[in-house]
Design a protein that fits this description.
disordered N terminus; mainly alpha; Arc Repressor Mutant, subunit A; two-stranded antiparallel sheet; 215 residues
Length: 215
């Protein structure tokens, strides 16, 4: 329902975007008429909401022209401010004694300020697929090309788990000399793997014994 009303309001705003004189906007409602429309809105009268939107668009245009006169695209701000106006109409409590124009003005400005903040945030964001250079063949070079690396985290974790299990089995099943041979031959733990000849020379045993045990 809110989206439908927003669309209606936006269509109405677009019809007025080329109007430079405030006289072209529908006149403000009297206090009595405004209260009548809010009562009807509270009872679910969608036509009353449309009247409140239409007769307060002048306030949106006034705020945009007064506070954002140097902005390059005031039409966008009028559209954004109109969303703030609709939010104000939907949330206003006419029983609390506050003037609707005062409340709506704050909602309109808040909506515009939220838009500016989102624009500043987007301006600081950089896409990893953004082209920053070209290679000598004319192919684009992006940030992802620079920062990408081969992800081996899963493989490294899997290797560490299997190594720990292997060391536990070696500790439980083999004698001290056999554990030493297997550990040196396959580089288990924090040492690099060694050849059969290197293991045999280091431990002073035959190469055939290393081969028989390692396989």
């Amino acid at each position: 329902m809110f989206e439908g009303i927003t669309t209606v309001a936006m269509n109405f705003v677009y019809l007025l975007l080329g109007i430079s004189s405030g006289q072209s906007f529908p006149p403000p409602l009297s206090a009595a008429k405004e209260r009548e429309y809010f009562i009807r809105l509270q009872e679910g009268d969608e036509e009353a909401r449309g009247e409140l939107i239409e007769h307060n668009l002048r306030l949106v245009a006034h705020i945009v022209r007064k506070y954002y006169s140097t902005h390059k695209n005031q039409e966008d701000l009028i559209s954004i401010g109109s969303i703030g106006l609709i939010k104000a109409i939907d949330s206003f409590d006419f029983e609390n004694g506050t003037r609707f124009a005062t409340y709506a003005a704050k909602c309109i400005q808040n909506e515009i300020l939220m838009f500016f903040r989102s624009q500043r945030k987007l301006a600081c964001e950089v896409s990893i697929n953004e082209t920053i250079d070209v290679d000598r063949d004319g192919n684009p070079l992006t940030y992802i090309d620079i920062i990408c690396c081969e992800d081996t985290i899963a493989e490294d974790i899997d290797k560490k788990i299997h190594t720990a299990k292997a060391l536990e089995l070696i500790r439980m099943r083999l004698c001290s000399r056999e554990r030493q041979i297997i550990t040196l031959r396959y580089g288990l733990g924090n040492i690099p793997p060694q050849t059969q000849r290197e293991v045999a020379q280091r431990l002073g045993i035959s190469r055939s014994y290393v081969s028989r045990l390692a396989y």
